[in-house]
Design a protein that fits this description.
Structural class: mainly beta
Number of strands: 6
Helix content: under 10%
Order of helices and strands: HEEEEEE
Distance between the termini: 14 Å
Length: 143
């Protein structure tokens, strides 16, 4: 299968740059893990995000709705995340993912936004925190 690249995302533990193989908007893909009770903010500044829960459970909430010790009444605010749940963050959206008692594993794809769709003052796209800078596979590399 010439041109085929196989990457074990569980083994690698970092983002992969699919740009060497695909001409579409994908800029990074990776499998992410949040320990039980841990949180990660995902912000769509200059890029869009697609998340798919592969294991565990948790909540996706707006940053201002995340539970703080001084606001325990917000404990149930947010979208429940269970295996099979997909979350899409269009340009400008933000969410905080919080893992449940069993942790949270999710597939994370970062998509480029065409320049015509971006507001003029947007910063240049960056790989979000939690996804490492993608490695570009060398030609013939079949990881």
């Amino acid at each position: 299968m010439p041109g085929t690249v196989i990457t074990d995302l569980r083994r690698r533990g970092c983002a992969v740059d699919p740009g060497g193989l695909l001409a579409g908007p994908l800029r990074a893909v990776g499998l992410q893990w949040l320990e039980p009770g841990r949180s990660a903010e995902v912000t769509a500044e200059g890029v869009e995000h697609a998340l798919y829960v592969t294991a565990g459970s948790g909540l996706a909430a707006l940053p201002e709705d995340v539970v703080h010790p001084d606001h325990p009444e917000r404990a149930d605010t947010g979208l429940p995340l269970v295996e099979g749940t997909a979350v899409v963050l269009p340009l400008g959206a933000r969410t905080v993912l919080t893992a449940g008692t069993a942790g949270l594993e999710y597939f994370h794809a970062v998509l480029a936004v065409p320049p015509s769709a971006e507001p003029a003052a947007e910063p240049s796209p960056e790989v979000p925190e939690g996804l490492e800078e993608p490695e570009v596979p060398e030609e013939g590399d079949q990881r």
